């Protein structure tokens, strides 16, 4: 398990109510990190399936060590308000894990409407941008750190691999990579590390929805696309994120890490 412990500062996990984000939060809390999770404040249905929400989030015996905040990350003003509230409640913010996102598909790009394309950009690229504009000004205020201020975003192997039927999702994820590369360069003078992980087919709500989009009866069918021949567990992605947030990765920035069981090969 990666050690996220630092002398001060708070880790914020955007999209932390379930899946990869929840696992990142649990790793952090078990290491003694102050941790805040942000997700929808109520049950929300989008793109044909339920988004993560703070009220239904569970963290086992770490419940009391993880603070919860409700916000719609597609709303920049709402997220900026929550960012300030977290800083007021928990002190300096020095780490940010952006795990929020959504998928839509089941049709070719020619059949995809402009609105559907924009919805994927909104749920993925715009969420990323809102997180950066909301938290980076606050993170820059954090002085005399024991380790570099770090950002890790979850993208997808779909950013670099053609996947028919989910072209709008692929396009939005590809745009996220271009955004993050530029961000890493721009924030380097501030000693802020920016990295991202690209998961393959990972167990959870989004993969369940992907099975629906492709008309599959069992998510296990996705494993044929992985060189290792198996699906990925959210905790495996969270461990990679935790490493990139740890002091051991302080010299790493602008890195794209595939945690995809060999799907990109």
What does this structure look like?
This protein has 265 residues and is an alpha/beta fold. The protein contains 6 helices and 9 strands, in the order βαββββαβαβαβααβ. Strand 6 (93-98), helix 3 and strand 7 (149-154) form a beta-alpha-beta unit. Helix 1 crosses helix 6, helix 2 packs parallel to helix 3 (114-139) and helix 3 (114-139) packs parallel to helix 4.
Task: Outline the fold blueprint.
Layout: E1 10-14, H1 19-30, E2 34-39, E3 45-46, E4 49-50, E5 66-70, H2 76-90, E6 93-98, H3 114-139, E7 149-154, H4 167-187, E8 192-199, H5 205-214, H6 234-245, E9 256-259
Parallel strand pairs: 1-2, 1-6, 2-5, 6-7, 7-8, 8-9
Antiparallel strand pairs: 3-4
pLDDT averaged over residues: 93
Separation of the first and last Cα atoms: 26 Å
Number of helical segments with 4 or more residues: 6
How much is the radius of gyration in Å? 17 Å
Proportion of beta-strand residues: 15-25%
Order of helices and strands: EHEEEEHEHEHEHHE
Approximate helicity band? 25-40%
Question: What are the defining features of this structure?
Answer:
two-stranded antiparallel sheet; alpha/beta; 265 residues; 6 helices; 7-stranded parallel beta sheet; 17% strand
What is this entry, summarized?
The chain has helices at residues 19-30, 76-90, 114-139, 167-187, 205-214, 234-245; strands spanning 10-14, 34-39, 45-46, 49-50, 66-70, 93-98, 149-154, 192-199, 256-259.
């Amino acid at each position: 398990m990666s050690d996220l412990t630092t002398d001060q500062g708070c880790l914020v996990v955007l999209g932390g109510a379930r899946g990869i984000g929840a696992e990142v939060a649990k790793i952090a809390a078990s290491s003694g990190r102050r941790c805040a999770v942000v997700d929808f404040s109520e049950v929300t249905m989008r793109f044909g399936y339920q988004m993560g929400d703070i009220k239904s989030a569970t963290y086992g015996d770490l419940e009391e060590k993880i603070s919860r905040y409700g916000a719609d990350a597609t709303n920049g003003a709402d997220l900026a308000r929550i960012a300030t509230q977290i800083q007021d409640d928990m002190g300096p913010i020095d780490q940010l894990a952006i795990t929020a996102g959504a998928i839509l598909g089941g049709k070719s790009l020619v059949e995809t409407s402009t609105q559907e394309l924009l919805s994927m950009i909104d749920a993925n690229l715009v969420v990323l941008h809102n997180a950066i504009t909301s938290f980076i000004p606050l993170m820059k205020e954090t002085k005399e750190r024991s380790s570099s201020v770090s950002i890790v975003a979850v993208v997808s192997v779909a950013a670099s691999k053609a996947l028919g039927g989910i072209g709008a999702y692929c396009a939005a994820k590809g745009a996220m990579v271009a955004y993050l590369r530029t961000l890493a360069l721009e924030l380097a003078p501030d000693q802020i590390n920016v990295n991202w992980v690209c998961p393959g087919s990972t167990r959870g709500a989004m993969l369940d929805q992907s099975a629906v989009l492709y008309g599959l009866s069992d998510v296990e069918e996705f494993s044929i696309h992985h060189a290792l021949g198996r699906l990925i567990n959210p905790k495996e992605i969270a461990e990679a994120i935790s490493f990139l947030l740890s002091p051991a990765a302080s010299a790493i920035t602008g890195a794209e890490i595939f945690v995809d069981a060999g799907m990109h090969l």
